[in-house]
Amino acid sequence: MKEGKLFVFSAPSGSGKTTIVRHLLEQERLNLEFSISCTSREPRGGEEHGKDYYFISLKDFKQHIKNGDFLEWEEVYRDNFYGTLKTEVERIWAKGKNVIFDIDVAGGLRIKKKFPDHTLAVFVKPPSVDELKRRLKKRQTESDERINMRIAKASVELATAPQFDVIIKNHDLQTALAEAEELVENFIKNGHSSEEE
Ligand code: 5GP
Predict the structure, then answer these.
(1) Residue 163: inside a domain, yes or no?
(2) Which of 23, 61, 107, 144 lies at a C-alpha separation of 20 to 30 Å from 13?
């Protein structure tokens, strides 16, 4: 099997990383496919099984952990488990494509450690914690309690940014999208991002 590249996009939720990942997936020349994670959380409005996530029960999730099926997994929020199955990378590489991950900071760094030469790990930085709060509230998909949980986690995650290969500051979405495209393109062509030179 030809091994492709791995692109990890990690960030506190509300940073705009999902928008960036979706944009990159639309760029056919980048030959990317989304790594579908497993999660034990309930689907949010409009999310589909086998597209956004594999929505599985907590029991099945724990069984996959026992079987050693995950490349990485995290209890991102209490009783909400998220993980990447080893078979996802195999599935996408077998198609001759590059893999793009929308996963949390700890998971992202773990993938980088497992595949150091194949992976470009990108941290998407929100303008500020206040802006993050505003964006999460605007989304209106979750309770205040859950939003506060995400904000608390965000502060911890922001501190890990220097461990990533590159940081994209998402102050202006169009600029962030263009920057992300360039980084991915360079890594596919040269095996490193231009910022690493
Ligand atoms: P959400 O509930 O908003 O979809 O995701 C919550 C967090 O879990 C996000 O930061 C998301 O990127 C992360 N996440 C999604 N899939 C995975 C995964 O497979 N592994 C890890 N470690 N985190 C994930």
Answers:
(1) yes
(2) 61
